[in-house]
Design brief:
The chain is α/β, with parallel strands linked by helices. The protein contains 12 helices and 13 strands. A 9-stranded mixed sheet has the order 6-5-13-12-11-7-10-9-8. The chain is elongated and about 70 Å long. The structure holds adenosine-5'-triphosphate and magnesium ion (MG).
Amino acid sequence: MSHSLRPYLEYQADRVEAVLAAHRAPGRVTGGTVGPRLIRFFLNPAPNIRFAAIKRLADDLALAMQVPTLTIERGKEGIILEFSNPNPRPVTLLDLLAEAMPIPLSTVLLGLTDTGAPLLARLAAPEVAHILVAGTTGSGKSALLRTMAASLVLTHTPKLLELLCIDPKGRTFPAFQGVPHLKRRPITQIPEALEALQSAARMMEARDRRGEEPPTDSDAVQGTSVPRLVIFIDELADLLMQGEAPFTDVLTRLVQRGRQAGVHVVAATQHPSAAILSSVMRANFPLRLVGRVVSAEDARVASGRAGTNAHLLNGRGDFLAVGGGEEPIRFQAAYMDEKDLKKQMTALYGGAAPYASQLPMLAMSSV
Ligand SMILES: Nc1ncnc2c1ncn2[C@@H]1O[C@H](COP(=O)(O)OP(=O)(O)OP(=O)(O)O)[C@@H](O)[C@H]1O
Ligand SMILES: [Mg+2]
């Protein structure tokens, strides 16, 4: 918690307790969490006080606390009061990376959860393996792909991890030009994208035959091991619509069998509908990162389940991580402005010197 927020939180907790006492529904604020956008208080009511009596006081509490909205829910921590953070915290990629270090091998940083913890995803885990990012225009998909790619580049040497970046619009990955983890420059042409994916699939099959797997933790890193390959695809629908059959074919192979061989697909699309993504392919993206969508129906299609309320998200990096049977986790994607990212990458990898002398500090400390 930032120090500057403490007096505000204490003041608000006093207000809450004063309003409750004045309405003969006494209770105490026993703790809480501060997220990038939302603050939660945990409230412990006196034993004879009913939940409904407190819930009825939402408007009076919001007035006394001078917050625009206040929700009151029951949770495992007791009664939860939720209101907006007056200083929404910008979630900057480099700050959050520094906070989350040391980040384990083959783990990608996504952002900050609404309870204020860094959210990481381990690619080697079966619950992650391949990631589908969905959301309407402006939800922050491309920015999130850049964040994931940057977090991997900054925490892995090129011997441990390689990236393949595909983006038919050519706007997502220019900052990664020249980064040694990319064996090819970011791909914008459809035929080259197909050829690169087919070549990745051949490599996956060769690794399968030879029983080669990239290391899953730092202790197992050896000079001879093969690097993990993470394939980023923005505007997946563009590829699937322009070159449909062969793309569906090769991507299905990659998501069905890639994890074991250390090949992962991270793809973004506005519309993850059945018309665009085959059901087999969709079923093989265990982790969905869902940004703002336009309707409850889109929320269901994007997340693969009902009731996520992804159509009520704010956009610009406000996401839900939806996976397996667990409750979706709301998070603010870590962000770095494209120009700053370009500067950062140029500073690290801009010269012609060999990779080793240019490794960023973050990479050093994680391996
Ligand atoms: N995590 C974030 N934090 C703060 N601002 C963000 C974040 N992500 C995105 N934005 C803002 O939202 C804008 C749109 O983001 P982005 O281009 O990634 O959206 P998109 O989902 O890829 O949209 P499109 O489908 O049109 O390509 C960005 O230019 C940036 O200003
Ligand atoms: Mg985009």
